[in-house]
Amino acid sequence: MPTLSMTFNFVRIMVVNWYSLFQIFYVLITVYTILVIIYYGRRPTKSISWVLAVIVLPFAGPILFYLFGVNRRKFKFFSHKQTAKRKAFKQDASKEMNAFRINFDNNIQYQKISSLVSNSSYTSVLGENQVDVLHDGEATFGDLFKALESAKDFIHIQYYSIEPGKLLDRLFDVFKKKIEQGVKILVLYDSFGSYRFRGKLKKKFESIGVMTLPVMPIRFGNLLFSLNFRNHRKIVVVDGKVAFTGGVNISDNYIDSDTELGRWKDAHLQLHGPIVHDIHLILLKDYFFASSKDSFDPTRFMRDPKPMGNVKAQVVAGGPDSEQPVIMQQYIAMIGGAKKYIHIVNPYFLPGQPFLEALKIAVQSKIEVKLLIPEKSDSLAARYAMFSQFEDLLAVGVRIFLRKDFSHSKIMLVDGTMASVGSGNFDNRSFEHNYETNVLIYDNTISINLSKEFESLCEQSQELKLDTFLKRPKWEKFLEGISKFFKPLL
Q1: 42 vs 442, which has greater pLDDT?
Q2: Torsion-angle region of residue 214: left (phi > 0), alpha (psi -120 to 50) or beta?
Q3: Which of 163, 278, 418, 490 could cross-link with 414 by S-S, CB 3.0 to 4.6 Å?
Q4: CATH number, domain containing residue 385
């Protein structure tokens, strides 16, 4: 019969053995993670930060790295089968598009950036479009619901954020009416951004015949793949004839907000003409990616493109499975092509060092650079991280304006010749982790009108001055310093 002493020794040996195994496991996972960071890391400063996090935060460091720090373009462990589906979907579904493709043989500025986007996004510049810029929720949803109510064949919708409220109730009523008329309706959404569009609310839409699909469902089996990679696009296509895209989500914040920020402002586009074809292909590619289909022919949803105006435009689409950081390259190319001025509107201005250096080079080359951001933010962490960059920018001559209302727009304007409007923020998340869509507009009239509105808003806003900004309280500087550490995750 075992004595108490024997039992104690047995327990002690087991504890020691388990502790030794635990230590071995800890060392292996730490060393493996550090090797992954060294082998797959692209930026030394970012790699050093992750190595320190892994060492200082036992187990938590590796978990945070695999959730938020993985460079998906190189780390083959994340070659998810759905990503293979995306890459397999490269189909120019209509030869009729050739008649609308534009080559800028006599314009070097246009030629360089359009070639860059074409090589990275696989989209061409298309002519004979009608592009209407919608400046707020009232204008956007006014035109959007008119288009939805005119649908005769299909409605395809994709949003990052779908929230319950008056707009969604109105959308349900329109959908119910349209389905009774035989219109087919597809709704794609991001699981993270549309976390409230689930359960009974989702079943309510499905009960009337709406097909709903999460583009990147958050499940335990694909958590590493999906948690930090989001589909941030906002696209609506009606009958293949009219499309909408930009920064506006399905949220009452745009029409009737009672929060401290007030009613949100945002820029959106209504598009007619050949460009609808390319916008629609982006949505259909996401549908194929989200579905259980092994093959998919998008041509059954395509409609013959028809000339509707005189605007030249190009779709810019990128994501974490793109070979290059498409959205970042588009913005930096626009900066590099500027000759007179660069105007930027964004609430989350958190770009990486290459983008900031490009702006500094532009200013020091006597190009006017103005940044218009909201004074208040829906994210304090993003606001403090954003302000942490301003001292260096102000010092070289970038002019920064704080508008009193909350603008959610993502706009870049160059020289009165080019305008970019879309879903892509000027931050690491949009550059590296999100699926985004911008429309690059090669049109003097639209670009000049947007710049005039930009200048008007700057006149109504408070300009940050370097000498005043340097005198801000020390506690603000401290919060800015802390927020900088989280900049890649914001």
Answers
A1: 442
A2: beta
A3: 418
A4: 3.30.870.10
Residue 216's alpha-carbon distances to 194, 228, 425, 488, in angstroms, are 11, 10, 20, 21
Number of domains in the chain: 3
Structural contact between residues 333 and 314, judged by C-beta atoms closer than 8 angstroms: no
Contact between 263 and 312 (Cβ < 8 Å): no
Q: Is residue 418 part of a domain?
A: yes
Closest CA to 134 of 248, 48, 240, 58: 248
Domain of 179 in residue numbering reads as 128-310
The answer to whether residues 147 and 244 touch, using CB atoms and an 8 Å cutoff, is yes
CA distance 163 to 423: 17
Please spell the DSSP secondary structure of 116-139, one letter per residue.
HHHHHH----EEEEEEEEEEEHHH
Asked whether residue 133 carries a pLDDT value surpassing 80, the answer given is yes
Please tell me whether residues 306 and 354 are part of one structural domain: no
Q: How big is the chain, counted in residues?
A: 490
Lowest mean pLDDT among 18-32, 84-98, 326-340: 84-98
List all residues 6 or more positions away from 93 whose beta carbon is below 8 Å from its beta carbon.
277, 281, 298, 299, 302
CB burial of residue 30 (10 Å; 0-12, 13-18, 19+): middle
Domain boundary among 59, 77, 95: 77
pLDDT tens column, 305-359: 888 999 999 999 998 878 888 999 999 999 999 999 999 999 999 998 889 999 9
More confidently predicted of 51 and 342 = 342
Integer Cα distance of 373 and 362 in angstroms: 19
Residue closest to 431 by CA, chosen among 357, 341, 322: 322
pTM of the predicted structure, to 2 decimals: 0.84
**Kind of pairing between the strands at 399-403 and 411-414:** unpaired
Q: Residues 6 or more apart from 2 whose CB is under 8 A from it? A: 10
CB 185 within 8 A of CB 178: yes
Instruction: Please state whether beta strands 211-214 and 184-189 pair in parallel, antiparallel, or not at all (unpaired).
Output: parallel
Please enumerate in sequence order all residues whose Cβ is within 8 A of that of 131, keeping only pairs 6 or more positions apart, or say none: 269, 270, 271, 275, 309, 311, 313, 439, 441, 443, 446
CA–CA distance, 226 with 97 (Å, rounded to integer): 34
Two tokens at 200? 């009974």
